[in-house]
Amino acid sequence: MDTDRVTLGINVDHVATLRQARGTRYPDPVAAAVLAELGGADQITIHLREDRRHIQERDLRIMRETVQTRVNLEMAATKEMAKIAYEFKPDMVTLVPEKREELTTEGGLDVALSRDTIKEHVRFLQDGDIKVSLFVDPDIDQIRAAHKVNADAVELHTGAYCDARSEPVRKTERARLVDAAKTCSKIGLYVYAGHGLNLNNVAEVAAIREITEFNIGHSIVANAVFVGMTQAVREMKQAILDARR
Ligand code: PXP
C-alpha cells in the first residue's frame, strides 16, 4: 500500500440536492463533476439513495461516460442497487447503511451483524469487476468483519471525530481513527475516510498516513457556492497535501 499517495473523492450529491429542491435541470451534478476534476479530484462519488432524494440514475449514467477519473457509487446493500451497479459498472461501490428518515448517512454499516448478506453482495459486485469498499465506524470488530467478507477496502466514518464538541472527545475519536487505520493496514485492507470533513478539521485526519483516500462532499459544495467548484476542490486538496507533509 502506497501511503505516500493520497487521493480525494468529491461527493457531488448536494449539487443534485439543490436541483431537486426545485425540480429544475440545474445545477447539474455532471457539470460539477467536470469542474471538480479540473480542480484535482481523483474520483467522483455519488450516493444513489433508495428515495432518489438527490442523485438520479440519469446522473450516474452520464457520469459513467463523462468522468475522466473514477466513479465511486455509494449505495445500500439491496438487490435493486446491485442490479443498477451491474448495469452502470462504477469503478467502485461503497456499501452504506441507509434509513429513509435520516438527513445524511448517520452511522457505519454493521458488517459484523449482517456478515452473510454483505459477503454475498461483495462477491456479486467483485464478480462484476467492481471494487467494494464498506463504510464502517472506526471499530476494530467491524474492520475484522470487513476483512472476513473479503471487502477490498473500508471507508472509516469520520463523523464522530468531526462532531466532537470538546478536546478530550476529539482526541478519543482521533485515536479510534488511528487504531482502525493501523489495523486495516496490518490486515491488508485499503483504508479511506469521510463524512463531516471540512477545511477546519481535515488536517488531523489527513495526517493519518494509513488513510489513502478521502471522500468529501457537503463542505466542498458549500464552499463552491462562494468560490466555485474548481477552487473549492483545489483548496481541499491542498489542505490534505499540506497535512501529509
Ligand atoms: N462518505 C460516505 C460513505 C458518505 O455517505 C458521505 C455522505 O454522503 C460522505 C463520505 C461525504 O460526507 P460529507 O458530505 O459530510 O463530506
The set of bound ligands, ions and cofactors reads: pyridoxine-5'-phosphate
- Rg, please? 17 Å
Strand content: 15-25%
- The oligomerization state is single chain
The count of domains is 1
Total helical segments: 11
- Please give the alpha-carbon distance between the first and last residues: 18 Å
Order of helices and strands: EHHEHEHEHEHEHHEHEHH
- The CATH superfamily is Aldolase class I
Mean pLDDT: 96
Biggest sheet, in brief?
8 strands, parallel, barrel
Tally the beta strands: 8
Identify the CATH architecture: Alpha-Beta Barrel
Structural class: alpha/beta
**How are strands sequenced across the largest beta sheet?**
1-2-3-4-5-6-7-8
How helix-rich are the residues, as a percent range? 40-55%
CATH domain class: Alpha Beta
CATH topology value = TIM Barrel
User: How would you describe the shape?
Assistant: globular
Low-confidence stretches: none
